[in-house]
């Protein structure tokens, strides 16, 4: 078993390396596709199927998600898909995503699994949907100028090359109409779990098919929330295991740490999402922000993460407020906002399936302490949790890329080995109790 998993890890690592090189070549050497306006595919019908996880429509799309000559097709014949989910208020909503049916046998034991990938932060504009960038790897919209990379190509390639069926969700409000409710615990969890149902429909398999969830950063929060909501929201799914890498489990802690970093504009994504679902917050937040600050927040609702790095890098939210206090300070002074932040806290319910949590001790974006606290909270409820620490030393603190995204590659495919952990769960290798390293 150990040798078998070592071979799988080596295979996945080679896939990751090749796709990373290919993706880099495509980004620097090709003309990026224009994603504005978003195509008609992303417009849902007037009436949606009532059943969450129903496939509304799909269309073919070629993507480069396996190695050429590696036993599968090149490019992969994937599908852009729209499926149904539910908002935090239980209203039906359309969600888009990318579905990849494998072209090679499953490379490990047991039946072929379904893998749902929850993306890291891509932005809040509709043009930022991962499914729009999946074919080319990098999309540039020209009116207004906006940049959106496909950050999940590596994960999709690794799992697809191993023979899993893969769905990458766009979340609610990316691609499809309406605002993306960034880091909304319930809505991200619903999009992930209903994405699994939709993938099973597309793959022609029942919901008893083995399922694992994969996510880092925003995606780690989404998969963590999905893991703890699955027993109540989607007990029909056969969830075998979850990777929650660098999960933003306590948003108050995250918003405080990310302020002033390379991607501090994501605070605007969160605030915009909070106000969209809790309009009672708008008056107080409007009063706190300067006219320029309000314009920045409104503008962020149409931006991708690449735009944030260009336009709002190292921004301090104290520059957006009339009294020069941070936006977090203002949220903490509004009782309704404190309630919203508390409602987003992950760790209040017990997952019924094993979870691997990883976090960088020196992560300058998603704090290590609150991720470790999530593991402790779940352990206290009797969940099966493995927490692994990434000890990458601090490199250019506040620059995000080395200290936050560096651990993603190490934890996902290297020494902390999320792929190996999930393959063990799919192979039926037992794990129990809590391990916090």
From TrEMBL:
Record carries keyword Signal: yes
Pfam family of the protein (one): LIP
Superkingdom classification of source: Bacteria
Signal peptide boundaries: 1-32
InterPro entries: AB_hydrolase_fold, Lipase_secreted
Entry protein name: Lipase family protein
Gene3D superfamilies attached to this UniProt entry: 1.10.260.130, alpha/beta hydrolase
Alphabetic keyword roster: Signal
Source taxonomy: Bacteria, Bacillati, Actinomycetota, Actinomycetes, Mycobacteriales
Keyword Lipid metabolism part of the UniProt annotation: no
């Amino acid at each position: 078993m150990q040798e078998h998993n070592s071979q799988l890890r080596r295979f996945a690592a080679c896939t990751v390396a090749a796709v990373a090189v290919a993706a880099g070549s495509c980004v620097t050497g090709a003309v990026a596709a224009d994603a504005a306006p978003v195509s008609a595919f992303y417009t849902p019908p007037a009436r949606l199927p009532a059943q969450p996880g129903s496939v509304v429509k799909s269309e073919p799309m070629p993507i480069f998600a396996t190695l050429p000559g590696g036993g599968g097709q090149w490019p992969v014949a994937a599908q852009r898909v729209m499926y149904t989910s539910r908002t935090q208020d239980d209203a039906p909503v359309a969600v888009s995503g990318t579905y990849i049916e494998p072209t090679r046998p499953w490379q490990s034991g047991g039946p072929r699994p379904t893998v749902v990938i929850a993306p890291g932060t891509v932005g809040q504009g509709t043009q930022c949907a991962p499914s729009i960038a999946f074919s080319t790897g990098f999309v540039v919209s020209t009116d207004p100028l906006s940049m959106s990379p496909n950050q999940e190509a590596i994960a999709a390639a690794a799992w697809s090359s191993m023979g899993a069926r893969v769905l990458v969700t766009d979340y609610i409000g990316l691609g499809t109409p309406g605002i993306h409710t960034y880091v909304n615990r319930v809505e991200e969890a619903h999009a992930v779990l209903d994405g699994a149902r939709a993938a099973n429909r597309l793959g022609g398999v029942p919901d008893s098919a083995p399922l694992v969830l994969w996510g880092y950063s925003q995606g780690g929060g989404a998969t963590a929330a999905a893991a703890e909501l699955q027993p109540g929201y989607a007990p029909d799914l056969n969830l075998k295991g979850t990777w929650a890498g660098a999960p933003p489990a306590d948003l108050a802690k995250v918003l405080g740490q990310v302020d002033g970093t390379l991607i501090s504009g994501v605070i605007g994504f969160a605030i915009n999402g909070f106000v969209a679902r809790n309009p009672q917050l708008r008056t107080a937040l409007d009063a706190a922000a300067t006219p320029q600050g309000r314009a920045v927040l409104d503008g962020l609702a149409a931006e991708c993460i690449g735009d944030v790095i260009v336009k709002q890098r190292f921004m301090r939210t104290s520059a957006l407020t009339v009294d020069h206090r941070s936006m977090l300070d203002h949220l903490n002074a509004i009782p309704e906002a404190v309630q919203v932040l508390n409602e987003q806290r992950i760790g209040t319910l017990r997952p019924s399936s094993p979870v691997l949590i990883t976090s960088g001790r020196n992560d300058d974006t998603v704090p290590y302490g609150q991720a470790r606290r999530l593991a402790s909270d779940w352990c206290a409820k009797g969940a099966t949790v493995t927490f692994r620490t990434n000890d990458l030393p601090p490199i250019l603190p506040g620059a995000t890329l080395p200290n936050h995204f560096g651990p993603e590659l190490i934890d996902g495919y290297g020494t902390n080995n999320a792929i190996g952990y999930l393959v063990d769960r799919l192979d039926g290798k037992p794990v129990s109790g809590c391990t916090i390293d």
